[in-house]
Amino acid sequence: MKREISQLMHETLAENFGLVTLTDIRVAPDFKEATCYITVFDKANEKRVLVELEEKALEYQKFLGRKLRMKFTPKISFKIDNYNEEIDKVEKLLKEVDKNGS
Q: Is beta strand 20-27 parallel, antiparallel or unpaired with respect to 75-80?
């Protein structure tokens, strides 16, 4: 599923928005919903990319339904993955604490 959505994103977004990466997918236990976490290289375009992906979500779902043999095709939603930014903040804080504690 991740590979297929990544490929769709590359085909439909790369020309307009550059590098957009699917970092994770979290699927509900009943397989009825899937949240796709993305990172956008050009941070200024994050909101535009999310809008574009939400508009294409139904198209992606239909493609997945045809491509993957699943009882249910999950409803897809997209969110920005801020994991790396959070790690950077924590590392910065730890460096400050270490610097002040020495």
A: unpaired
Structural domain including 25 reads: 2-101
CATH of the domain at 67: 3.30.300.20
Of 56 and 83, the structure prediction assigns the larger pLDDT to 56
What's the predicted TM-score (pTM) here?
0.79
Start-to-end Cα distance in the chain? 48
As given in the structure block, the two tokens for residue 59 are: 């198209």
Q: Which residues of 7-35 are buried (b: 16+ CB within 10 A; e: fewer)?
A: ebbeebbeeebeebebeeeeeeeeeeebe
Q: Which two tokens stand for residue 69?
A: 């043999």
pLDDT bracket for residue 48 (50, 70, 90): very high
